[in-house]
Amino acid sequence: MTSSPGPLADREWRLIPEESRSGPMQMALEEVAAETAVAGGPRTVRAFRWEPSTLSLGYRQEPHTVDWDYCETEGIGVTRRQTGGGGIYHDFDADISYSVIAPAEELPGDLMETYALLCEPVLDAFRRMGVSAAFADAEQPAIHEPTCYLRAINPAHDVMATATAGRAGDPEANDSANPAPKKLSGNAQYRQREAIIQHGSLSYSLDPERHLGVFADPGIDASRFRERVTSIAEQADVSRTEAVDHLESALTDWADAEIGSWSDEELDRARELADRKYASKSWLRERTAPDA
What we know:
By secondary structure, the chain is an alpha/beta fold. It is built from ten helices and eleven strands. The protein has a single domain, classed as Bira Bifunctional Protein, Domain 2 (BirA Bifunctional Protein, domain 2). Helices cover 33% and strands 23% of the residues. It is globular.
């Protein structure tokens, strides 16, 4: 299945196929890709994987919301994103992540328009997987603020499965004939060095115990988590490899991208940035980026 190219397909784009890297390195690569795009190099679309499994904190998230002992015992990495919102547990198998990175001057100035544009290939990917999904059509209240997937549902950037059963949001809404949608993907964006970086998490499968375990005193159990969140595997008969292939194909078609790779210079810059910033205690605990 192919779709028509998006409105930015006349620019130079590269697809970086899914790679497994640490959380700090994945976040550093996004900054480096932004630098490349602003300097006249290719814009980037990519799928990526977190190794080890990683908790990414929202930019303003407080450290006391994390169960640091659990993360250390379970071998779960922790880093902090540039984007806001709650923390996301990116399981090595259960999570699929993506980025779209382009110069800000080429994108709409309106935030909602930019989300709608850059999520086009994400929604297309779900269609290719056989998953019925769309932006949330209504707000839902928060269940647990520190957890991205359990925060208040925002129609601007939260993607919901539109054919689910169960309850989400309203404790009284348990009508199986009219189920509330469940969250399938969260997306966020920020401006970095005159570029727009949008990244997002697609739930391939669920591991609620570990997802909740990384947070200090979440106050809910796995069954409550499942009332709000669903996964690709629950919605369609598709393997993780197939799901990633569909996502990469949708990104490629939307951008008319060529298969590409990181240059040696980009990798060197990203390693330095990952060590100095995204793996540093000052960034992780205090949101302070060490001087270059």
